[in-house]
Design a protein that fits this description.
Number of strands: 15
Structural class: mainly beta
Strand content: over 45%
Shape: globular
CATH architecture: Sandwich
Number of domains: 1
CATH class: Mainly Beta
Order of helices and strands: HEEEEEEEEEEEEEEE
CATH superfamily: Exo-inulinase, domain 1
Length: 217
């Protein structure tokens, strides 16, 4: 009997992978955060003229998916190319599993919102956004503040319901799920790693809840 087999039988040897820690999962429910403020480590971007990119804050609402609070973008006015956004410090990741629930509230020029990941800053990042006015979901990369669409998916988006956007990005492969239905699967190498964040455009007022990040190997 070999030494390795003997150790296995005696329970004295455990494969290295068995001791490997599971990927860390972080979730923001916003229920412990103070209303009318940004949660800790959430930082607003800026528009090109230097103004804060939106009116973001935690609010208490009966519409919360997981009561009592949501994180909301509340600015009701905005130019066509105003990207309202926040980035979260201490979320640097390359390969990740990222998701958030969103509820469209209002918007005439734009509506809905999306997820940001692998963000170098507030001008360079990946973006998946859902727009009930256009009834579609689109994947972009944003380079120096300019969007380039990588994929469009037409989908009926009910403005009276919460929906979930879900991203899995491993190396160059980007998989997108809408309400857990797979809708996009492609390869893009524009960004390698960065922070995560949330996004709306123009006058879109949107609630977000249950943001979840898991870093993958």
């Amino acid at each position: 009997m070999t030494l390795l087999l003997l150790l296995l039988l005696l329970g004295l040897w455990v494969p290295a992978y068995a001791n490997a820690s599971a990927p860390e999962t972080r979730t923001w429910h916003f229920d412990e955060d103070r209303p009318e403020q940004l949660p800790p480590k959430f930082a607003m971007g800026t528009f090109f003229d230097g103004r804060p990119a939106g009116d973001w804050k935690v609010i208490t609402t009966p519409k919360a998916l997981s009561p009592p609070n949501v994180f909301a973008q509340l600015r009701e006015k905005g130019a066509e190319h105003h990207y309202n956004m926040v980035l979260i410090d201490d979320t640097q990741a390359a390969n990740l599993d990222l998701s958030v629930s969103f509820l469209p509230i209002s918007g005439k020029a734009d509506m809905g919102g999306g997820l940001i990941w692998r963000a170098a800053d507030d001008r360079n990042y990946y973006l998946i956004r859902a727009n009930p006015l256009e009834q579609n979901i689109r994947l972009y990369h944003v380079v120096k503040g300019i969007r380039k669409m990588l994929k469009n998916y037409d989908e009926i988006i009910d403005i009276k319901k919460w929906h979930r956007l879900h991203v899995v990005n491993q190396d160059c492969r980007i998989q997108i799920f809408y309400d857990e239905k797979p809708i996009v699967d492609l390869c893009d190498e524009t960004f390698k790693e960065g922070r995560i964040g949330l996004w709306t455009k123009s006058d879109a007022v949107t609630y977000f809840d249950d943001l979840t990040l898991q870093s993958l190997k």
